[in-house]
Amino acid sequence: MPSYVRAGTLPPKRHIQFRRPDGGLYAEELFSTKGFESAYSLLYHLRPPTATLEVRTWQRPDARFEANQPPRNRHWLTRRSEARGDAVDARVPILGNEEITISIVDAVRPMDYFYRNAGGDELLFVHEGSGVLESAFGELSYRAHDYLLIPCATTYRLQPSAPTRLVVHESRGHITLPKKFRNEFGQLAEHAPYYERDFRAPALPAPVDARGSYEVRIANPGRDAVYTVENHPFDVVGWDGYCYPYAFNADDYAPVTGKLHQPPPSHATFEAPGAAFCVFVPRLFDYHPLAVPVPYNHSSVDCDEVLYYVSGNFMSRRGVEEGSITLHAAGAPHGPQPGAVEASLGKTSTDEIAIMVDTFRPLMLAEPALALEDPAYFRSWLEPAPSVAGR
Ligand SMILES: [Fe+2]
Question: What is the 327 CA–ligand 1 centroid distance (Å)?
């Protein structure tokens, strides 16, 4: 959470009587993380958020995973997925472990139910499309290249106004801005690649004053549930605090460039337990007269590296296209494919956009994604290269 935000109507102090125009009390809700110890917000509802009519098990389709065994570098052409639906029910898991699940989704219709991930924070990246993320905190308009960070247990609906392609990261913990970008007061430091002004909080509309029967699907690994609640979840008149959904657009990221190649941590965006996130955006290349613009060969001995290719010319990669996902497995060297180094010499800039997540535990392969895989990828560093699926 970048900073303190307040919205709507609030009482002068927390935890005191706060009355509706009809004389009744608003229902205060403390929305807190790590027990009572970390970031939190206070929300004021027209009616109690606790009024529950029914609880049942959510029979969510189980994503089955298998080990990347023997470990090898992999590539999925995710544009070949034909799954379409809303932003939750059409998710196609690609990779996952105990700490994170990475999916793609083509959301073409609004959600006609509410959704809450009670297992951890979600980080959505908007490849393309536009619409509104509706939540109890208000309405957050989104557009291409937005990251949408949704705190654990936020009740939300994603309502596309144009077909929306998302990369979804479901963490089992909290996703935060890296500590190295913050000063001792929590403010984003002068050397950070973004500033508080770059982050967008939801705008709080008038509360939905309605009672009825509202379905809330609650994701929590092994404990998925459907709650039917009596009061509309978006009946909030005011809230304040540090815990709320927010947007950051990758086009606003100010990348660090250098005399020599800058490694991925220079392009960090977020971090989570067992995962680090980066973004690669259009930038100038290194300015040493003998600089090699594309990355060197790399053995990542401690983590699996996942790249999602958004747009531009992916100079160091052969066979990838927009929407491709590559996995470079811990211990399996990767780097520019034959000819890429020579082709890059003398280039001064790149227009590529890609997002990355590194995980420190091995990623498993989701079964639904196996049909999207280019099985020849791990041999794409050979010269002459074998034919690559889709090319
Ligand atoms: Fe790497």
Answer: 10
**CB proximity list for 16: less than 8 A, separation 6 or greater:** none
Beta strands of 175-274 (E only): which ranges? 199-200, 211-219, 225-231, 236-241, 246-249, 268-272
Total count of residues recorded for the chain: 391
299: number of Cβ within 10 Å:
11
Backbone φ and ψ for 377, nearest 5 degrees, come out as: -55, -40
Q: Please calculate the CA angle 311-356-129 and round it to the nearest 5 degrees.
A: 45
- Give pairs for 250-254: CB < 8 Å, separation 24+: 250/125, 250/145, 250/146, 250/147, 250/279, 250/281, 250/353, 250/355, 251/145, 251/281, 252/194, 252/198, 253/193, 253/194, 253/279, 253/281, 254/193, 254/194
Contact present, 284 and 273 (Cβ < 8 Å): no
Cβ count near 86 (within 10 Å): 21
Q: Which pLDDT score, from 0 to 100, does residue 331 have?
A: 87
The amino acid sitting at 152 is C
Query: What CA–CA distances, in Å, run from 203 to 139, 161, 195, 299, 359?
Result: 5, 17, 19, 45, 33
* 34, burial (CB in 10 Å: exposed 0-12, middle 13-18, buried 19+): exposed
Its sign, for the CA torsion 155, 4, 271, 373, is positive
**pTM value surpassing 0.90:** yes
pLDDT tens-digit readout, 53-110: 999 999 887 789 999 999 999 999 999 999 999 999 999 999 999 999 999 999 999 9
Count other C-beta atoms under 10 Å from residue 234's C-beta: 24
Give the Å distance between the CA of 250 and the centre of ligand 1: 20
For ligand 1, the distance from its centroid to the CA atom of residue 301, given in whole angstroms, is 10
Q: Using the mean position of ligand 1's atoms as its centre, give its distance from the Cα of residue 306 in Å.
A: 9
